[in-house]
Design a protein that fits this description.
Order of helices and strands: HHHHHHHEHHHHEHHHH
Strand order of the largest sheet: 1-2
Mean pLDDT: 82
Strand content: under 5%
Distance between the termini: 79 Å
Structural class: mainly alpha
Radius of gyration: 32 Å
Low-confidence stretches: 45-49
Helix content: over 70%
Largest sheet: 2 strands, antiparallel
Number of helices: 15
Shape: elongated
Length: 361
Amino acid sequence: MFSSVWNFVKRHKRKFIFTGALFGGVYFLGKYAQKKLSDMQEKEASDYISQARRQFHFESNQRTCNMTVLSMLPPLKEAITNQLNSESLTALLKEKPANKLEIWEDLKILSFTRTIVGVYSTCMLVVLLRVQLNIIGGYLYLDNSVGKSSPSPMAPPEVQQQYLSSIHHLLGDGLTELITVVKKAVQNALESVPLKQSLSLMEVEQQLSWIRAEIEAGERNMSWFLLADDQNALADQACGLTENDVVTIRLLNETRDMFDSPDFSTVLNSSFNRGFSRLLDNLAEFFRPPPGDSAPFAASDSLSAVSLPLAKIIPIINGQINSICSETPSHFVQDLLMNDQVKEFAANVYETFSAPQDLQK
């Protein structure tokens, strides 16, 4: 019996070898595929966890941005009102001076200048902090990443403090220059408009549009008011030549590169449009017809038919700074913080600076 079995095996030896090799190959191929599948699943899980951690860090960073904006509004308001002190003029008017008309003319220019500067500078503050804090946020994410190749932090606390101190340009020289530019445009538009002339909300909007057109078409790029572009000024802001200072200068230059991008111009203009739109919404509350007015123009969509003397519009305009630079979340600030284009741009900045390849910078 055993000899017949052996003879059968010898006759079909090649088939047995091929079949054994086939089944062996399939077995090892299956094991290899199983390992590759396991590796892929582990990598997908790791990528998912990494992406979730990154998303959580990004969202936390945006909340920090919002709180930082709110904390910076009081010093911004103080800087504006110190340079454009309308309260001193209103106090003089209460004393009924002989040059009352002259003071009213000064108050007209100052009030519109103060409010327009408030809109521009608040928009700039929101966008500037979104860029700066997302650059820092991206580097902080890399500093805390598992498997980071470089042992030295990319954004140590000292660098963060130096870098963020560059915001003093917007509250200082940048603001002073902005006031000069805005005041000139306001004078060109309103100097010849009599105090007794009545203006509808649409006419006020037209005046604001003319003023904006002159400001935004000027020789000075709007991003200059955000950050000093002179290399010496950047070095001065970095406060020295230590290793941290070199990193700070690099961050400032990276920020300047962001400001030079077409996307940034689009986002900044979007913020300006949103800011002035909200300002007009605020002003609209004062141009509503009296309750119970049955005239055809009393409909809510016919505010253009309601007019006020410019002398009555001036105090309304003058008081808008309290809403624009409010440290409590006002509708004005909320609109700017929730602007989808600003949020999308912030996400792109964070994505750029939290990418692993930036470790080689």
